[in-house]
Amino acid sequence: MHQSKEERVHRVFETISAHYDRMNSVISFRRHLKWREDVMRRMNVQKGKRALDVCCGTADWAIALAEAVGPEGEVYGLDFSENMLKVGEQKVKARGLVNVTLIHGNAMQLPFPDNTFDYVTIGFGLRNVPDYMTVLREMHRVTKPGGMTVCLETSQPTLFGFRQLYYLYFRFIMPLFGKLLAKSYEEYSWLQESAREFPGRDELAEMFRQAGFVDIEVKPYTFGVAAMHIGYKR
Ligand SMILES: C[S@@+](CC[C@H](N)C(=O)[O-])C[C@H]1O[C@@H](n2cnc3c(N)ncnc32)[C@H](O)[C@@H]1O
């Protein structure tokens, strides 16, 4: 039976939610923690502001944003997988945060009015949606004028030699980790397929421009295995 990309992605995350955090660290050799820290440092989030984390999953970025904006600020996390959100809710509760609201929704149609947020983020989420441009335009729409949208995502390494090794790792080794640790080879194959199809740094910067963002900043991580893009709304 034919399954749309959206249905497949939804099933993948509903299935792996309990293993997601641990697998992230295994497959990226814990590098993702450093990338996330660096992105937050560059964003320099101010107290009392309002932020939205799209495709928030188990809520790590939403929690980091909530701690940065402080009790007088407000953070929303949005995801379409109820199981991922449940893991996120437990973490929010364990930290006693009252300024985070996790909501069930679709990144393709954000349930917020125009010009609502100072910061809009998406971490390892854009790769998963049916249409990258629709989501980037939605993120632009809900960003306030002068506010920023930030994407942290897998990217395409450019260094010859490293690039080839990376693709071998991603294609053949990483899904095996998935099979051994999360007992779900098929689900982790999705990660390598979606990462291979995702645009490189320059192409994504151009998509940010097309979505209406200006002053785009790009930062590659670990030889370009991942990249951060920041765009501002005029
Ligand atoms: C790889 S996880 C990233 C989670 C989290 N942002 C992080 O950095 O760890 C991707 C998340 O995107 C969510 N997702 C994928 N497509 C979506 C869509 N169209 N609307 C809302 N959430 C979506 C999945 O349910 C999953 O939780």
From TrEMBL:
Per the record, the pathway is: Quinol/quinone metabolism; menaquinone biosynthesis; menaquinol from 1,4-dihydroxy-2-naphthoate: step 2/2
Per the record, what are the reactions this protein catalyses? a 2-demethylmenaquinol + S-adenosyl-L-methionine = a menaquinol + S-adenosyl-L-homocysteine + H(+)
Which PROSITE patterns does the record associate with it?
SAM_MT_UBIE, UBIE_1, UBIE_2
Q: What class of enzyme is it?
A: transferase
Enzyme Commission number, as recorded: 2.1.1.163
Q: Which SUPFAM superfamilies match?
A: S-adenosyl-L-methionine-dependent methyltransferases
Does Methyltransferase show up as a keyword for this record?
yes
Record carries keyword Transferase:
yes
Listed InterPro entries: MenG_heptapren, SAM-dependent_MTases_sf, UbiE/COQ5_MeTrFase, UbiE/COQ5_MeTrFase_CS
GO BP: menaquinone biosynthetic process; methylation
Q: What Gene3D superfamilies would the database entry show?
A: Vaccinia Virus protein VP39 (3.40.50.150)
Q: Which Pfam families match?
A: Ubie_methyltran (PF01209)
Enumerate the CDD domains for this protein.
AdoMet_MTases
Binding-site list for S-adenosyl-L-methionine: T58, D79, N106, A107
Q: Which keywords appear in this protein's UniProt record, sorted alphabetically? A: Menaquinone biosynthesis, Methyltransferase, S-adenosyl-L-methionine, Transferase
The GO terms describing molecular function are: demethylmenaquinone methyltransferase activity
Q: What's the stated role of this polypeptide? A: Methyltransferase required for the conversion of demethylmenaquinol (DMKH2) to menaquinol (MKH2).
Annotated family: Belongs to the class I-like SAM-binding methyltransferase superfamily. MenG/UbiE family.
Q: What is this protein called?
A: Demethylmenaquinone methyltransferase
From which source organism is this entry?
A: Geobacillus subterraneus
